[in-house]
Amino acid sequence: MTRMFVKTQVRIQKALENAGGRDAGQGTIEYIGILVVAGLLLVAVIGTVKGWNPKGFVDSAITEIEGVVGG
Predict the structure, then answer these.
(1) First vs last Cα of the chain: how many Å apart?
(2) How far is CA 5 from CA 1, 8, 9, 10, 11, in A?
(3) What is residue 20's predicted lDDT score, i.e. its pLDDT?
(4) Whole-number Cα distances in Å, 48 to 4, 19, 45
(5) What is the pTM of this model?
(6) Nearest-5° Cα angle at 9, 6 to 11
(7) What would the 3-class secondary structure string for 7-70 be?
(8) Is the Transmembrane helix keyword given for this protein (predicted)?
(9) What is the pLDDT of residue 19?
(10) Are the C-beta atoms of residues 16 and 10 closer than 8 Å to each other?
(11) What are phi and psi of 25, to 5 degrees?
(12) Residue 54 and residue 47 in contact, taking contact as beta carbons nearer than 8 Å
């Protein structure tokens, strides 16, 4: 009976140790985040240099969506 409790306790401890150490793929997610931020920064810089008006773009996109939806 004691052996069963000890085995169960060991299994629980191993499960808890493994549950906290799941960092697989974390680096990939961070690199994707960096690429997204760099892309947004690049779009902002190019838009500023070319005189792009983001408010006008968003307004026209909203108007177009409202026309499709019927709102």
Answers:
(1) 70
(2) 7, 5, 6, 9, 10
(3) 62
(4) 69, 47, 5
(5) 0.41
(6) 110
(7) HHHHHHHHHHHHHHCCCCCHHHHHHHHHHHHHHHHHHHHHHHHHCCCHHHHHHHHHHHHHHHHC
(8) yes
(9) 66
(10) no
(11) 85, 0
(12) yes
Report the pLDDT averaged over residues 28-49.
86
Take residue 50 and report the two structure tokens written for it: 């070319």
CA 37 from chain center: how many Å?
A: 11
Stated length of the chain? 71
Give me the residue label for tokens 């500023």. Answer: 48
The set of residues, in sequence order, having a beta carbon less than 8 Å from that of 54 and lying 6+ positions away, is 47
Contacts of 47 by beta carbon, 8 Å cutoff, 6+ apart: 54
